[in-house]
Design goal:
The chain has 193 residues and is an alpha+beta fold. The protein is 18% helix and 31% strand. Strands 4-1-8-7-11-10-9-13 form an eight-stranded mixed β-sheet. A three-stranded antiparallel β-sheet has the order 6-5-12, with no helix packed on it. It starts with a strand and ends in a 5-residue tail after the last helix.
């Protein structure tokens, strides 16, 4: 398991369905090591702190393994070409693009442990919104995230550290009482997206 990319963005105003909104979903890869502390990565912002950020959602991680799925569904939705050059890691709004670890293997309280002593704790899944639909370029993206379970994971910072592309980490099991996808499915059941 390793970090493919470390991604940050500043919040900016964009037009979505004729209204101006603030968003930082357009994360871009950073070079070198990036420090992280209790409220997230250095140089990163969240636009709506009622649903993103804070101590329990300081860092958002997304598996690189799901990018092929999104390329396919975007093509089917005729949302335009989405290749690695046009949509680099970070395009899902994630701070950390991971390889070798998906939501199915995560439980609330599991720990991602880095060699420098940094520790990130699995806190909750991500829930999609209209900004995700806009970023993906088609109206059913949030619904597909719910149906697929390809939601990614929010992480709380247990021990501060620095992270960069290529860093390896180990997964230390937490209490293993509640699975990440179990929480995601229970909180999205019956909701329309």
């Amino acid at each position: 398991m390793h970090i493919v990319s470390v991604n940050t963005a500043r919040a900016e105003r964009v037009q979505i369905h004729g209204r101006e909104v603030l968003t930082a979903i357009g994360k871009r890869p950073r070079d070198g090591a990036v420090a992280y502390a209790r409220l997230g990565l250095e140089g990163d912002e969240q636009a709506d702190l009622s649903v993103h950020g804070g101590q329990h959602k300081a860092v958002y991680a997304y598996p690189l393994e799901h990018y092929a799925f999104w390329r396919t569904v975007r093509a089917q939705a005729r949302a335009g070409g989405w290749d690695d050059a046009l949509q680099p890691p970070g395009s899902m709004g994630e701070n950390l693009t991971l390889s070798g670890l998906t939501e199915r293997e995560l439980w609330i309280g599991d720990l991602l442990c880095f060699d420098d002593g940094g520790v990130l704790a699995v806190s909750e899944p991500r829930y999609p919104c209209f900004k995700f639909n806009a970023a993906m370029g088609f109206a059913k993206a949030a619904k597909l995230m719910v149906e697929s379970g390809y939601c990614g994971v929010y992480l709380a910072v247990r021990n501060e550290g620095r992270v960069q592309a290529g860093d390896r980490f180990t997964l230390k099991p937490g209490p293993r009482e509640v699975g990440l996808l179990e929480v995601f499915r229970s909180r999205t059941a019956g909701r329309s997206f």
